[in-house]
Amino acid sequence: MAFEYAPAPESRAIVDIAPSYGLFIDGEFAEAADGKVFKTVSPSTEEVLSEVAQAGAEDVDRAVRAARKAFEKWSALPGSERAKYLFRIARIIQERSRELAVLETLDNGKPIKETRDADLPLVAAHFFYYAGWADKLDHAGFGPNPRPLGVAGQVIPWNFPLLMLAWKIAPALATGNTVVLKPAETTPLSALFFADICRQAGLPKGVVNILPGYGDAGAALVAHPDVNKVAFTGSTAVGKEIARTVAGTRKKLTLELGGKGANIVFDDAPIDQAVEGIVTGIFFNQGQVCCAGSRLLVQESVHDELLDSLKRRLSTLRLGDPLDKNTDIGAINSAEQLARITALADQGEAEGAERWSPACELPSSGYWFAPTLFTNVTQAHTIARDEIFGPVLSVLTFRTPDEAVAKANNTPYGLSAGIWTEKGSRILAVANKLRAGVIWSNTFNKFDPTSPFGGYKESGFGREGGRHGLEAYLDV
Amino acid sequence: MSDKSETFDRLSVFKTYKLYVGGKFPRSESGRVYEVSDSKGQWLANAPQASRKDARDAVVAARKAFGAWSGATAYNRGQILYRIAEMLEGRRDQFVREVADAEGLSKSKAAGVVDATIDRWVWYAGWTDKIAQVIGGGNPVAGPFFNLSTPEPTGVVAVLAPQESSFLGLVSVVAPVIATGNTAVVVASEKSPLPALSLGEVLATSDLPGGVVNVLSGRTAEIAAPLAAHQDVNAIDLAGADEVLAKELEIAAADNLKRVLRPQPVDNWTGTPGIDRMTAFLETKTVWHPTGSLGASGSSY
Fold first, then answer.
1. What proportion of chain A, given as a percentage, has pLDDT over 90?
2. pTM for the complete prediction?
3. In chain A, which residue's Cα lies nearest the Cα of B242?
């Protein structure tokens, strides 16, 4: 007999969500100029968590002006002083990380296991890492005394709300820029809590401005003539639109866009470890990860054995209450995203791929999608080409390493890839040939602030993290 | 010298300038040429006026050459770039004449420009096997992983050579692109294309594989438009585009998210180049591998 898991919910009492929030401009919370608000809901229950001011073009203008004003003093501060502000922020994040993890799980729908063990430690680590750069920029390899750009307009997605904020804000502040950041409309809360952390840290007014809102606010921010740098993480389609918007201007641009990562399993790979890596690759964060290993390329000779193991493993995944500490798969972030995943999965079936999910009971409210894998997938299938951004894995096969490389590279994206084999020379040879910015061999979905992350081809340009991540915010 | 028939001046042999594509010297498929004059308006030669089809052919050649060139060892690329400098040195007088004509410089000034250009190839020849060490390296990740970031070439780069500096400017934008393993489709200065076309002859005899550099001459705007829109071009250097054209091309380049290097005013190409023109066309690849760890329960490797 199998032992049942007892419920192990994390308490939400630790987080105090106000019924309404304003925009954070020049160190103050303020209503939107046109008074607009929107509701943010918990994807796992559809409960309304709070009502948030919705930024419009006028608010963008006000925030950019505040950031411009703050830039003069902030950029003139000695790097060692800026460093201390960032260290403070990192420490406060660590102190409040349990609260922020619960908040993020509520607003995003991802399991507490992930916010607690992945998102929040990485958020704090990013601020720590870039804090240390603030007074060492002369030694970063961009020549002596590299200068900041000015006001950075940053637009981030909903899949890792606070982590993406950290990736954007930490290097921007370390290098002496000021920021106006627009979080996604479905996950504005952790950014607003971050505003409070800025207050606790005593960060000067206007250095960080947070504008919750929709795409129109993001577009206004990107197009604002007084923004010097644009950083965007999100879809490739929007990334292209942004690239067109900043064409002919002097704005510096970095884009972290979509992906269709290949996870390549050779016949000599340790099967159990590969299966864990495949699960991490595509079911981490419900597959809502730009670098997800959404295309599994299996060497033909181990296909059946691997699929058996993989299906067995998927049957042990626990889907449900994201606040439960034993939950592996949480809710999809929004009804809209769920509809997109559903449509693409249906299309996969319609195009002849074979669909499989473990027996899995979905909660009655909220947005849920069972972990799903498709076999008999060819390169022509939509599910092998389009980014699904959900817990859907497409399985393809190959016979030779060259075929694996050719299939892996057969995509306009170039963000991530995985290689599973015991043979070191094969790892290095295949890694050399893959056109992707991040390659995980015998592991997957690992992140670290010291490590540059970003894509080739239509997965965007520029790198975040590491020394490379500084370049985006310096006049070099 | 009393024989009257021997008093005629020798008639010189004109040179038919051609494009340099895929290691060969084709005329433009369009059959068009345009007049190139010196700074005083004297006719110098007819240059081929490349078409969009020529541009596409050049991209095909550059793509075909990319695998071997990017896969060559950095040491080998350095040898070949240095070989280009050697070959240029041997034809120094020709280029002094061509640059003097193209840019209206005195012989001595033109000689200075050509020398600086040769030295520039040498400078980049020395970079091929150093850039990875300068901008790549191991990352101290907080976990049991070995993790290494290395630069890799972006791919096929369209280069609009500067309009005013027909030789030093040209080499200053082409050499960094190929030093790092990219292949290039180069649009020569519209008004002064002849040094660029002659450079093709040097490249062809420098062990540089055909297709690594392809040189087109003609109307910059006409050739650049299909390059900026081409789905198999990975990056574009807009050095030779004016403000209006640059914006138009940057918008077209967004279609497949080409890496764009915007035009920057350069008064004097003789200054020591930084590494920016190399890093603009490099990607960073980060490879992770577990190292195994010694935990409380013992070794896991």
1. 99
2. 0.96
3. A248
